[in-house]
Amino acid sequence: MKQRISILIPRLAIPGQKIGGGERVAINLANGIAAVGIPTDLVVFTPGSMLQDEISQTVHVVSLDALNWLEAFLRFRRYLLDTRPTAVLAQDNRAGVLAVLVREFTNVPTRIIATVHTTLSQRWGEAPVWKKLLSRQLVRPFHLRADAVVAVSKAAAEDLVSLMPLPRDHVKVVYNPVVSKELFVKAKEEPQLPWFASNGPPVILGVGSLCKAKDFKTLLKAFALVRQKRDARLVILGEGEMRHELEKLANELSIEQDVMMPGVVKNPFPYISRAAVFVLSSRREGLPTVLIEALALGAPIVSTDCPSGPAEILENGKWGYLVPPGDPEAMAEAIIRTLNEPRRPVPQEAWARFTIEASVKRYLKLVEEKLERG
Description:
By secondary structure, the protein is α/β, with parallel strands linked by helices. It has helices at 21-35, 69-83, 93-106, 120-125, 129-145, 154-163, 181-187, 216-227, 243-252, 269-274, 289-296, 310-313, 328-340, 356-372; strands at 5-9, 40-44, 59-63, 87-90, 111-116, 148-151, 171-173, 203-207, 233-237, 259-263, 277-280, 301-304, 321-323. It has two domains: 5-177 and 355-372, 3-Layer(aba) Sandwich (Rossmann fold); 181-353, Rossmann fold (3-Layer(aba) Sandwich).
């Protein structure tokens, strides 16, 4: 049977808004599968993306032009009936639910693999108890009806198995496709922002949405402690609803002159590769894409040991410092240590698990296994 793979993600990044790791992962996965000669569709709800030019010409982009879930259901149903892909790789919880629901109404023998990109117990833990219980009861049947559920880290897999609960053999671990040749090419571009000249004060860098989960408040507090002991600057790339709070906190800490928050930057890689310290300050993650990118680009790293992913990526501190979430004192101490240490090269073995080729190989093997089972 001639294979065709569909990557389903509700939306790609919208111009002027955040660029999430999930969007880059979906594009990398589509590009990687198409590169091995398998016809590949990247199915999105709405067209238009800051990352449009990163999509390979060999990938067929399918826009459902859906403004709501009813339209998405009807148009994805038509897509599934017309195209009949071998497998749908749904790239978040919502996409997984939609794919399973549509298959139930079409009887198309498409295999569905639903990928969960976060640690659900942590994400849902921020919601009221009733909402957490309701979410679990709503999502669990769809996870069970999928041919497999993919967790992007071992810790996230354990979380899924215990939270839902799900059969252990139903949840597979597949690391995200993050590292590509293009990553290193883009990192060589000249930075457009100031402060990254080699003769300036060292720059501490954070990248991510300005939201509660990324906890840039702790990073600002840690930076204020660092500034008490040495000259340095802080740049945070990203946009989000907490911008005003973060700017206010920077003023209260009297560090605003040494803090820059320029918003979304389409190509963050020149800044990551040139940062004196890359800091991940998150309270929760699934498998933080930007931390893998920083590792591959050889940036000295300080990361919270949040659930889940950082400890797995850094191999329990082998490739960077791990500190408790929400602890500015521990973070500041690790940053100062990193600034005082010589920069060491990062071997390929540290990030080889996260290449596009490795991830594509694992996904295709999983599809093959599900086809063989009938």
